[in-house]
Fold this protein.
Amino acid sequence: MTETTGLSIESVQQLLLAPSGLGVNELERVLATIMQHDVDYADLYFQASRFESWTLEDGIVTDGVHSVERGVGARAVSGEKSGFAYSDEIALPALQEAAAAARAIARQGQEKQIKAWTRTAGHNLYLPTDPLSSLGDRAKIELLEMIDREARELDPRVKQVIASLAGGDDTILLLASDGTHAADVRPLVRLNVTVIVEQDGRREQGSSGGGCRRDYHYFIDEERALGYAREAVRQALVNLEAQDAPAGTMQVVLGSGWPGVLLHEAIGHGLEGDFNRKGTSAFSGRVGERVASDLCTVVDDGTLAQRRGSLNIDDEGVPTENTVLIEKGVLKGYMQDKLNARLMGVASTGNGRRESYAHLPMPRMTNTYMLAGQHAPEEIIASVKNGLYAVNFGGGQVDITSGKFVFSASEAYMIENGKVTYPVKGATLIGSGPDVLQRVTMVGDDLALDTGVGTCGKEGQSVPVGVGQPTLLIDGLTVGGTNV
Amino acid sequence: MSRRDIVKVQAGLESVAEQVLQLAKGRGATAAEVALSEESGLSVNVRLGEVETIEFNKDKGIGVTVYFGQRKGSASTADFSRAALDDAVRAACSIATFTADDPYTGLADADRMATEIPDLDLNYPWDVTPEMAIELATACEDAARSYDEQISNSEGASLSSHEGTRVYANSHGFIGGYSTTRHSMSCSVIAEDKNGMQRDYWYSVARDRNDLESALEIGNKSAARTLQRLGGRRLETGKVPVLFAADVAGSLISHMISAIRGGNLYRKSSFLLDKLGEQIFPDFVHIHEKPHMKKVLGSAPYDSEGVATYARDLVRDGVLQGYVLDSYAARKLKMESTANSGGVHNVLIEAGELDQQGLLREMGSGLLVTELLGMGVNTVTGDYSRGAAGFWVENGVIAYPVDEITIAGNLSDMFMQLQAVGNDIDYRGNIKCGSLLIDAMTIAGT
């Protein structure tokens, strides 16, 4: 590992292996026992993580939780098969047991050599900092209390404030039969604010928050914490005025930033290597085809400094990349982990991720966004005669096989004769992934990434991700309101 | 695991629990509670006739909460060594020096602790080997793949078997534990025609493997469900009656449960605020909570605070009879705990007269929903808007499959506009519900 990473693999090994007296030589022998079977690839993934969260409601911090977790996962891959076992004890007997279970996927065969260790020089996107000790516990509580005061002082209609501060770090070490020897220390912090407002018996909520791979000072810098409080109150007050959302297919303008969850659902999941290798995605076999209007260039970029979705190396020890998924409307490629890349005859794109040592890696997104276009956002709104302007969203979901996806607006307005007129209630938007980006007729010059709140779920595993986009005009998307 | 091994595991966990309570007391905590679990299992996935993954699961964990008067702190770890337990207790105690005095915090009241722990018949270990699991999953997928030539691809069939033991103890002197098993088999396949691909699935889950549907049944159902979806069309935007099939109807009841949960009530973030004793459904609707059903997945002898669970009515004659409260929310609301710390235990909607066919005839023309997409449900306001797929029904008969539409309404109205509850109850989930027919919802489509 080079000096520039700010991280020494020795210090990671000290933390993960030294307490049980394990060294790289023992690990090599464990990998060798897996390779006695007819296995193409094997890896050992060590992890130690610490996490805390503090929660405020009714004006006081009533709850705090501290948790630690450590363990090791052993994986054996043979063709399309994976054998996997793990242990929450990092010790030689447990490791040997896990390795023996994992290799059972393949028959005993000719023993393969493990390649000589090559230390992976990962990126240097974040520092191996310790978020938990970056701020005193008293100061963490004061930060939450400050958010509560700010929200309540902003408007007397604010009846409840729920704020939570969470942080932690993951230290990982990876050794694989292909010679991979890599480590990473991944800090992550997050702050969330939800407010409930009430007026004339009507109640509404607003939420805001952010996070990144830094320490808690991120929330104090530039008054970000107070900014989240103000944003949550603003959204809640807008919702107090919201009228019923329209129902039907219409022009939809999506705001910049978090509305990029559209790309994550409509395009991103369908371009993950596993679904395409198996031919189960609506995008399978379509590389080189037009899947979007020529205004659209979409990337998955794990190399952005300090971003929530970024990683110095993925969970298979491969440095993350800036992968072009769609270039000027044409499908360029998929996101790959080692297994699917090998089976499809391409290279891993550094998208092999896992929730923890107790989960198998698979192709996952990092930060997925669309590049900026030519139009000013005002110009885009002015072009719409009758449509919806959706600026904030909750989550979404996709059926990758049919390509149908949904995502739910939490703040939206009507556009009438080129002007934003009145707010409407949240509504789910539905479309078809291979179709929706072909209808993008204007792309804004205001690319923004989200504030760092995204969590993606796939096959029961959660990982932090980012999304982003400029303001977009979609010429025909179905809006699921109640107003016919 | 044999009976004797289970007893040994539980005794081991109980001794760790007692150690932790001692450590907390030693550090000056005025009260403490601890929850521990140990689980192991096997999951196998077979795709296109070949093994895809074999996963061996083995997890354990401990969570401790300490109280210093009215201040609280929590910590968790998976390491049961004395040093790690002490670290966890110290971390929890440290947090409790910073959290605020909260008059409502604390253990559940001592007189509510379960005094006897009924055997709910939840533990049916299955010594399934990877080879047996592979054989069953292969048979399941084979059934699906050979069902029809339009079945063109597969996401595979899975078999999983898990067993675990949980122990809870607190400084009232309560200590309890029990073991449970959970076995499941599922299959998901893809069919293709000129319009594209469709996917659907089926699964079976049970405490006792003998209660699982057969591999053949699961495979056949997954294939039949997938085939039915080929050629899905959109609908015109408008208002139509909607029948939620039993396997998705439970989600509507789960939104109700969420809205009567203590946390959402004291935060005033519920569309069912102050509705206790009021009509929220038509008078033919009766909803029960039955925590002691034998051999059932949602059953539990006590909640996650040690409070004895009990059978009760949630809704009788359409009127809301009770909330879903843990001791903290109960104190905030000046009420009593309903033994729902950690959630509800077997919510059962009393069956009506008709099966799904009968309900389709009752509906006449409308939408049968078999899949819901996304999370467009606002518990504060009851506003509901979700992606949906299913079938258009004409004169009580399925006419054609439907997809890429949304259905929308407000849950308060949808509940009051309920027309009928089916007798086709889906017992797999914690909420056991038949198909639900709703008078009218807004469809957004073309």
Q: What stands out?
A: Residues 397 and 406 of chain A are 5 Å apart (CA to CA). Chain A touches chain B through 79 residues (CB under 8 Å). The two ends of chain A are 61 Å apart (CA to CA).
